Amino acid sequence: MTKDESKDIYQLFLERTGHGSMIITSNRDTEEWISMFDDVLLAQSAIDRFKNAAFDFVMEGESYRPRLKPKLDSNDPPPQTPSTRPATPRGRRRRR
């Protein structure tokens, strides 16, 4: 991250700590986050604040991507149009 991006993330952690919930998803372990920040001291402070009251939910197992990939028989000709997944219904969002 750039210097400004690092400061923005730090500010976000600072403002949200103790005031509300926050969900962060990442394909990197929190130990790797330090190297992503421009300032190591700022990174360590942000991560300490974040991890202080965080729940670490690690998902392991088989990826769903291969299951969603269209299956083609080797004897079939290539499709004339791109394959699409069926649309999934989404719930309505409530505005506050």
Features:
96 residues, elongated
Write up what this structure looks like.
This protein is mainly α. Helix content is 36%, strand content 0%. The protein is built from four helices and no strands. The protein has helices at residues 3-16, 30-33, 40-52, 65-68.
What is the gyration radius calculated from CA atoms?
A: 21 Å
What's the β-strand tally?
A: 0
Number of helices: 4
Shape type = elongated
Low-confidence stretches: none
Q: What's the pLDDT, averaged over the residues?
A: 78
Share of residues in strands: under 5%
What layout of secondary structure does this protein have?
Blueprint: H1 3-16, H2 30-33, H3 40-52, H4 65-68
Write a brief structural summary.
By secondary structure, the protein is an all-alpha fold. The chain has helices at 3-16, 30-33, 40-52, 65-68.
